[in-house]
TrEMBL record:
Membrane-spanning intervals of the chain: 39-61, 101-119, 131-152, 158-180
Taxonomic lineage of the native organism: Bacteria, Pseudomonadati, Pseudomonadota, Alphaproteobacteria, Hyphomonadales
Protein name: Transmembrane protein
Entry keywords, A to Z: Membrane, Transmembrane, Transmembrane helix
Organism: Hyphomonas johnsonii MHS-2
Domain of life from the UniProt record: Bacteria
C-alpha cells in the first residue's frame, strides 16, 4: 500500500469519526430538548387550558354586574353577565331528524375540558417526580377555580362549576391512580 493511500484512508477514518461524533452530539441535544418538553408536558396540568380560556372570556367579554337603566337607577344582575356569551352558538349542524344540533360556546369549553381530563388521567399512571408536581399544580388550579367560583360573578355559572369539578376530579383521580400504580410497582419490585 502506498503512502498516499494510507494517508487517504486515515483521513477518511478521521472524517467518519468526526461525522459520527457530530451526529451523536446532535442526537444528545435533541434528546435533551425532548426530555425537557416531556418534563414540561408532565408537570403542566392540561386543564389549565380550558380554565384559562374561560378566564379570558369572563374577564375580557363578560360584561358588568351592575348597569344603569333608563331612569338612572343602578340595576344589579341576578345572574352572571357572561351567560349570554356562553349560551351563544359556537357551531350548528343540521341533523337527519330535521332539527339543528347547536353546540354553545360553554359546551365547547366543556368538551375541550373532557378531552384534557382524559389525557390528565392517562398522564397520572406514571409514578415520576413530575407527576407529583403535576398533582400539586392541579390542586392549586382547583383552589383558584373554587375561589373564582365563590367570589367572582362571571364565574358563577354551570359551565364553570362543571369545569371546576373536573379540576377536582383531576386531582382526586390523579392521586388515586398514582398511589395504585406505585403500590403495583412496589409489589412487583418486591416480588409480592
Amino acid at each position: 500500500m502506498s503512502k498516499n493511500t494510507k494517508i487517504a484512508l486515515a483521513g477518511a477514518a478521521i472524517a467518519k469519526r468526526e461525522r459520527k461524533e457530530r451526529e451523536n452530539h446532535a442526537s444528545d441535544e435533541s434528546n435533551k430538548k425532548g426530555n425537557l418538553m416531556r418534563a414540561i408536558f408532565g408537570i403542566f396540568p392540561l386543564l389549565v387550558i380550558p380554565v384559562a380560556l374561560y378566564n379570558l372570556l369572563a374577564l375580557g367579554f363578560g360584561g358588568a354586574v351592575e348597569t344603569i337603566d333608563a331612569s338612572g337607577q343602578i340595576v344589579r344582575a341576578t345572574s352572571a353577565p357572561i351567560l349570554g356569551l356562553l349560551n351563544g352558538e359556537f357551531m350548528g349542524l343540521p341533523m337527519i331528524s330535521g332539527v339543528d344540533w347547536v353546540l354553545t360556546k360553554g359546551d365547547a369549553i366543556l368538551l375541550l375540558a373532557i378531552v384534557f381530563l382524559f389525557l390528565e388521567i392517562l398522564k397520572s399512571t406514571s409514578t415520576g417526580t413530575s407527576t407529583i408536581v403535576n398533582h400539586a399544580i392541579s390542586m392549586i388550579l382547583f383552589i383558584v377555580c373554587l375561589i373564582q367560583f365563590l367570589l367572582l360573578p362571571n364565574f358563577a355559572t354551570s359551565t364553570f362549576f362543571i369545569l371546576m369539578s373536573m379540576t377536582l376530579l383531576d386531582v382526586l383521580a390523579g392521586v388515586v391512580v398514582t398511589i395504585v400504580s406505585a403500590r403495583r410497582d412496589f409489589g412487583v419490585a418486591g416480588d409480592i
